[in-house]
Design goal:
- With 499 residues, the protein is an alpha+beta fold.
- 21% of the residues lie in helices and 20% in strands.
- It is built from eight helices and 18 strands.
- The strands form five sheets. It has a six-stranded mixed beta sheet.
- It starts with a strand and ends in a 7-residue tail after the last helix.
- The relative contact order is 0.10.
Length: 499
């Protein structure tokens, strides 16, 4: 049989989570058939089989494994004789048959008693001796233990203490939360005691023990009852006692821990790495978008069903400016600059989610944006955003970026500072296009469209604020200022974007 290992589905992937097997265990598979859904550090991907045979699943749904770890095997099914022999060995060596079936008493295994007389039936074995196999002190021979689901605290596996971090897969945590199951009461059967989907399903599938009716049985005759302990009563205070304070562990109330998805964990790790290792500095400028607004309105009037957005214009302007300032289209690696020949613009896309942990941020790439028309960029960014939200984006579409544009203008944000996506040199944060009062005239106009003799005036113009965050190891202040000024010039004369 051939081994199937956790594939590397992106250039930054280190581990993946098995979300769902698309083929049941033991079913035949063909080359090219979709086998499993895997959550990577960037997206949820579907992995296809490159072999023909019968699938033997090794990794359960919800398990997180490193790249290269064994997840399944594909090959010829085992023969009936071999399967019978394996079953027989399993039933005679190790745990007794039926030990893993909830609510079923394991069949006793054959035990060779030492020479000598065995204790009479009904009597407990001498001190220091264990009860016979298949029996327990609580349930002697002839009695059936109560059926109440699988034991959650097996011998040798202490139950987690309250407040202790429970090792569980994201899928198991979600199922437990939906079914109101306390993970502290479960014992995981996954690697390293990790709670997986099957552990939660076993609890919900098992019937609950019936509640005892009637009063509790009286104490046995001749057994003295424990004397009642008298606790002196304390008069209730009218209000909180003087000097009483909340304990540090309870002052915040009940705390719920939520495990982030692989994508969210990767974002957290890379952004922390960026802020800790890259010397950021930022530049901010206001851009007159009056002509961009007029251009978009004209394209709509001419019947453009999907006219380019302001963000599409920003992407095109950045691409043209990067072609003129190649240092901004580079990366820093081990004391050297890597100048990139292609200009690939990453466009940040927010993915909403109903999960308590929130959504994610995915950055698909527009390749060769400097040689594509404004209309091509508009169509491509729209298609990429749709595939991101449908979880259909592929790893090649998420890699290769040399510059990033992040836009929060649709949420009404005037300005913000984004974090550089390493190893890129910079990132442009785009605010909303708003009508603002600005000074115009000979004294304060940058466009010079005021005729001589006219006075300065206050005019209402469509304005947008952008913030460029830079890696100071690559771009110095003057370099970044010239690059940002060129972006401003292109957006204030948008006819250049259509050439």
């Amino acid at each position: 049989m051939a081994d199937l290992v956790m594939p590397r589905l992106s250039d930054t992937m280190e581990e993946g989570t098995i979300l769902r097997w698309l083929v049941p265990n033991g079913a035949p598979v063909r080359r090219g058939m979709e086998l499993v859904e895997i959550e990577t550090d960037k997206a949820t991907m579907t992995y296809e089989s490159d072999l023909d045979g019968v699938l033997t699943i090794i990794a359960a749904e919800g398990e997180t494994l490193a790249v290269g770890a064994l997840i399944a095997r594909v090959g010829e099914p085992a023969s009936a004789d071999t399967a019978s022999a394996d079953t027989a060995d399993e039933n005679t060596v190790g745990e007794p048959a039926g030990a893993d079936i909830p609510g079923v008493r394991p069949a006793p295994t054959l035990r060779v008693e030492p020479a000598g007389e065995a204790p009479p039936a009904g009597e407990a074995p001498p001190d220091g001796e264990a009860p016979p196999a298949g029996e327990s002190p609580a349930h002697p021979a002839g009695e059936t233990p109560p059926i109440g689901g699988p034991s959650t605290h097996p011998v040798g596996a202490p139950a987690p203490q309250e407040g202790e971090r429970v090792k569980a897969s994201p899928l198991a945590r979600r199922m437990a939360r939906e079914r109101d199951i306390d993970l502290h009461a479960l014992t995981g059967t996954g690697p390293g005691g990790r709670i997986v989907k099957a552990d939660v399903q076993a609890v919900t599938a098992a019937p609950s023990p019936p509640a005892a009716d009637g009063p509790s049985p009286p104490a046995a005759a001749g057994t003295p009852s424990a004397p009642a302990m008298h606790t002196p009563s304390v008069p209730a205070a009218d209000g909180p006692s003087a000097g009483a304070t909340e304990k540090p562990l309870t002052a915040k109330g009940e705390t719920t821990e939520l495990e982030l998805s692989r994508t969210q964990q990767t974002i957290a790790r890379r952004m922390a790495e960026s802020k800790a290792t890259i010397p950021h500095f930022s530049l901010r400028v206001d851009i007159d978008m009056e002509d961009c607004v007029a251009l978009r309105s004209e394209l709509k009037r001419l019947g453009q069903a999907h006219a380019p957005t302001y963000n599409d214009m920003v992407v095109k302007a950045c691409a043209l400016a990067l072609r003129e300032h190649p240092r901004a289209n580079s990366s820093y690696r081990d004391g050297r600059l890597q100048l990139h020949a292609r200009i690939n613009i990453g466009v940040a896309v927010a993915v909403d989610s109903d999960e308590p942990t929130g959504g994610t941020l995915i950055v698909p790439t527009v390749f060769d944006a400097d040689v594509k028309s404004l209309g091509e960029i508009a169509r491509e960014t729209r298609a990429l955003a749709a595939r991101v939200r449908e979880h259909a984006i592929t790893p090649p579409e998420l890699s290769g970026g040399t510059f990033t544009v992040s836009n929060l203008g649709m949420f009404g944000m005037v300005s913000f500072t984004a974090i550089i996506n390493p190893p890129q040199a910079s990132i442009l944060a785009v605010g909303s296009v708003q009508r603002r009062p600005v000074a115009r005239g000979q004294g304060g106009s940058d466009s010079g469209d005021q005729r001589d003799g006219e006075r300065d005036e206050i005019a209402v113009r469509h304005t947008m604020t952008v913030t460029l965050a830079c890696d100071h190891r690559i771009l110095y202040g003057a370099d970044a200022a010239r690059f940002l000024a060129r972006i401003r010039e292109l957006l204030e004369a948008p006819a250049m974007l259509t050439l």
